[in-house]
Write a structure and sequence with these properties.
Blueprint: H1 3-7, E1 9-13, H2 14-17, H3 23-34, E2 48-58, E3 63-66, E4 70-72, E5 75-81, E6 93-97, H4 101-104, H5 107-119, E7 131-142, E8 163-172, E9 174-176, E10 179-182, E11 199-203, E12 210-215, E13 220-223, E14 226-228, E15 235-246
Length: about 250
């Protein structure tokens, strides 16, 4: 049984769990790629950077197939939609710069996606059609004292996809970036506004490929804003977020 099925959320050490010859090289390729992420045009404060792409997994074989992108002025974009689940972008599509072909071929990234998929669980009817995967590269970066970088949404929330996983790529000179897992009823609130008995766990991911995953119907989750910890060095928190959603078939009788 997957850890996430047992507890509705789970924590992982993927440097240990995925250890293979060449993992350090592939990790460094990911780390380098995060240095030049484009700014998140929906980020507001300018301290959030992002790329996003979509894929499907064929449940019969586990094969990952990357989906086509949107081309605008010779720039590739992928669209992301959370419906009612992100109060900052209700029922709105957001278009993010897509991952490069080189990054989509990164062995470690594909192993991470497969690991996460193997932790998910589905009804047999859900596995007849492909499982949809969203892959987000998100960097919170602060260069000025007193500034903050904020994730979206800035409250306990659910994502709308059944499963979401977060994998740390880099954490440097960071104050904050604290993860909170709580019960679903706390969605829409800040952790400081709920009772202790509504909290499940508070923790930070510190080391490369330290990770966690949530089963969306059973928990809400949150990450606090990022500030500089000390000195002149930039604060950086880079993560890969991966979400999974079954293919939804329209009800033509409605």
């Amino acid at each position: 049984m997957s850890l996430i099925k047992k507890n509705s959320y789970a924590r992982y050490d993927l440097f240990k769990d995925l250890k293979y010859e060449g993992i350090e090289h592939d990790y460094n390729e990911l780390l380098e790629y995060f240095k030049d992420l484009p700014i998140d045009e929906y980020g507001g404060d300018g301290n959030r950077y992002r790329r996003y792409s979509r894929a499907i997994i064929l449940p019969q074989t586990g094969e990952i197939v990357w989906l086509p992108t949107i081309n605008k002025d010779n720039v590739e974009y992928s669209a992301y939609f959370q419906g009612k689940y992100n109060p900052e972008h209700l029922s709105a599509y957001r278009e993010f710069h897509s991952l490069s072909k080189t990054m989509k071929n990164n062995k470690l990234l594909n192993k991470i996606i497969t690991h996460d998929y193997n932790e998910t669980f589905w009804d047999e009817k859900d596995k007849i059609l492909p499982i949809h995967v969203g892959i987000h590269f998100v960097k919170l970066s602060v260069k000025k004292n007193g500034d903050k970088a904020v994730s979206s949404p800035d409250c306990l929330h659910q994502d709308g996809e059944p499963f979401t996983f977060a994998h740390l790529i880099e954490r440097r000179n960071v104050k904050g970036g604290t993860n909170v897992i709580a019960f679903p009823a706390s969605a829409g609130k800040k952790p400081e506004d709920i009772k202790n008995e509504e909290l499940i766990e508070v923790f930070e991911i510190i080391n490369p490929l330290e990770s966690y995953g949530v089963y969306d119907p059973k928990v809400s989750h949150y990450v606090s804003s990022v500030e500089k910890n000390n000195g002149d060095d930039e604060a950086v928190r880079s993560v890969i977020l991966i979400d999974f959603q079954q293919t939804v078939v329209a009800n033509t009788d409605v």
